[in-house]
Amino acid sequence: MTNNHENQGDAGEQTVPKVHNALTDAKVREHRRDRLRDAIDDSSLLVAFIAASKKEAPKAEVAKLIKIQHAYAGDPKLSEQEETDFWLAYSALATAIRPATVEGIRYVAPNKNLGFIGWMWKNRWITLTVAIIAIAYLCVQIHVVRGSSILSGYNATLADLEKADQAEPKSEDKIVTLTNQLDGLRKELITWMFDPAIKLGRSDTAEMVAANQDPVMRAKIEIETASSYLLPFLLGMLGACTQVLRSIARRIGEQSMNPTLLPTYYIRVLMGYIIGTIIGLFMLPSIGGTTTNPFSLLASLPLLTAAFIAGYAAEVLFVALDKIVNDARDYVSGEKKDS
To answer: Of 9, 102, 228, 320, which sits most exposed with the smallest number of CB within 10 A?
Structure first.
């Protein structure tokens, strides 16, 4: 018991390293054989790809690979010289097929006849993400455009009513007509703002809010909020997804797709999410872009256009932020040195 307590007390002062099972020589040889066997299997993909493509490859290296493949099929053992020749030939052919890779060939070759729908399903994570974001964007955009049209009509009718009221002589019929139009547009604004609640049978919600608050002001706030935050957020993600789709299409076409690198695409979509959320930070008043600062182009673009471009080029913007932070760090360090 005493020893246990002493060990527990010493644990805070001294970290006891974890003991891992060391690989035995037999295990190392087994892993080496597995890697060699997989590489010989992949070498047949390399030879077949080069034969089917227009890429030039060293004929001597192709001959070596084929010879070693046949030798290994007869007796799965290679001498030290044969193994050395194999890896050198394998490396030469892997370099010759660039930008294609063995992983890309293995990914594309069995699926070359999938067709459009098949490839969409095979990469369904990005397909579904793009579909959901695109549908959400369209719904929000249609909602905003409809509300903006009603609000513009309301403001125009209100201006006409003020002119008719100030005109001499007054036309009572015109004033009554414009007043009725204004009331109709006000009700249409209320319906637009609470359309989901009304469709769910909660029309009392719209009536209650309309009785206590100005629907015109609420409509303006809703349109500005959607245009300044929600739409840029959706377009930032849509831009990132577009870049991911373009990259996947390019890599599939050149057979350089590596499924193990898919997490980098997930991160890119998340970067689009972040950029779309904070795009307002990059929007500053500006007359136009300059040749010395290409990022000033963002300031001269409409907000939604800039959100899409920022999402598409999220990495560029984050690199720019890194440069700003690093410059600030160097500046502070310089001040400290001077003092």
So the answer is: 9
